[in-house]
Amino acid sequence: MSRETFETAAGHPSAVAITPMPRVSLQAFCESAELAALIHEAADDRRMEKAHVKVNMGGASAAVEAYRTSPTPNVIILENSADRAELMAQLDALAEYCDAGTKVIVVGRHNDISLYRELMGRGVSDYLVQPFGVLDFIGALSALYNHDVTAPLGRVIAVAGSKGGVGASCVAHNLAWSIARDLDLATVIVDVDLPFGTAGLDFNQDPPQGVAEAIFAPDRLDSNLVDRLLSKCSEKLSILAAPTTIERAYDMQETAFDQLIELLRASTPYIILDIPHVWTAWSRRLLTVADEALIVASPELASLRNTKSLLDNLRAARRNDPAPRIVLNGVGMPKRPEITTTDFAKAIEAEPAVALPFDARLFGAAANNGQMIAEVEDGAKIAAIFQDLARIATGRAVIKRARKNLFEPLLAVLKG
């Protein structure tokens, strides 16, 4: 490739809106172990899973030697500590061997605008000044391919239980309902518990089609089909219900839901994934690639153990994403010995985002009537907690509510 065919990126996206990399090959030529380690860490990030990354040592001179007899990849990363004249000579030499379309990023330590302009003038795609973080690096790579693409609209919130029966589906549905009603944001619930999902029951819906039609017909799946499959629960809330039939086995591929989620991201601000208590390649993937992961737990030993295991696994898989949030459900059940919220938090080394008190009457009425908690009793404390959870999960500040005065009824009588 000639010098003129190096392409220029048009700025870096913010860390919260980094678009995943396409299927490209990337080779880095590092001079320092620090940069090599950072690129290795970036390669493990979920946004880089499609990219093929190889890290070499030796800097620009090693790149020139490597490509004398080998084709160049889609992206070359060059770390440079040499002076400007030597760097320009190395880039000139590299340009003689580069294939058309190859993008080059130079990594240096001098924040020099004149150097930046000279590099851009020679067709270098970007110049990164050390030190920088993993997300800064991924964002720079993403900008090479996605700077003309509108960032996805939707954010995915995956909700899963630490064990069966902890109320994860109830939390997922009430969370979605609160985001739609209280925050006035369009929301879709995707019930991925195909044989036993309860989204249809909880919203008093019986849709003839739903999520199964979307994932089992990938060749027909597009935005129009998704729109037809959605069941509208309110102006801002829709569901993709599960078929809830055991006529077939649901042995899905790891990436079975990828295309569906990508289409929903393009059109819907919030997508809530109601994930069953299973541990498969696809369920782990959904929890890993989601923008936010919520683990619903109950204050007892088996749930604590499983919550700790899930947290450890997902923290490792989501190193550059927010840690999963914990929702402690069914706190204060009468006559049941339970682990205190303080002890639970200490054991898992994470504070629960919210703790939902046990209320058999309220939750039972909501489940039997096909309603959400706030529809049964809008002023209930639990309804307010779901409002708080909706604000936490969407990155908004929690409303500070004034404490009720216990003597208010008495004062009203005295004043009367």
- Supply the helix-strand structural class: alpha/beta
Distance between the termini: 89 Å
How would you sum up the global shape?
elongated
Give me the CATH architecture of the largest domain, please. 3-Layer(aba) Sandwich
- Given as residue ranges, the uncertain stretches (5+ residues, pLDDT < 50) are 1-16
Strand order of the largest sheet: 8-9-7-10-6-11-12-13
List the total number of helices. 17
Biggest sheet record = 8 strands, mixed
Name of the CATH superfamily of the largest domain: P-loop containing nucleotide triphosphate hydrolases
Percent helix, as a range, is 25-40%
Oligomer: single chain
Please give the radius of gyration in angstroms.
26 Å
Indicate the CATH topology of the largest domain: Rossmann fold
Average pLDDT value? Answer: 87
Using the coordinates above, name the CATH class of the largest domain. Answer: Alpha Beta
Percent of residues in β-strands: 15-25%
Order of helices and strands: EHEHEHEHEHEHEHHHEEHEHEHEHEHHHH
